[in-house]
Request: fold
Amino acid sequence: MTILKIYTAPDPVLKRVASPVDKVDDALRRQMDDMLETMYDDDGIGLAAPQVGISNRVLVIDLEQKDGAGLGKKGNPLYFVNPEIIWFSEECSVYNEGCLSVPEMYAEVERPAQIRVKYLDYNGKEQELEADGLLATCLQHEVDHLDGILFIDHLSALKRNIILRKLKKLTKLSEAEAVPV
Ligand code: NI
Reply:
């Protein structure tokens, strides 16, 4: 398995609408394995293909790493190909969200508290899942990535610009650190 590069805002790949997958084959499973490895390596709980520069509709999520072996270690990985949210509850919940593509930034986002999602699994089998709590939040955050939407796009323009400015400073700093002496 390969650790992939994570693209950060404002990279244009994050704004693109990703294409549906035609077939779940070994090449796609390799992509999902690499995405999972990359997500663990960066201590994330969810990752969408556009975040590693691949513009197709694939997500990986693992919420159980925290309760199990610890963050960054395999808990219960979930794979979603061509996920489609087919029902949203009227009731909403608020979660303090972060994103590997918007590193070190967090903000409260309100989303429907329960959803139902239709998708293909790791083996290409059609599945349906009803989710609430953190899984519902995470799935909506990741499906947004497939449509070129980041969690900061749910905030006011003012809050979003503050975060983007901070992020720019942060990126400049880490680039400066990377210069060999
Ligand atoms: Ni994200």
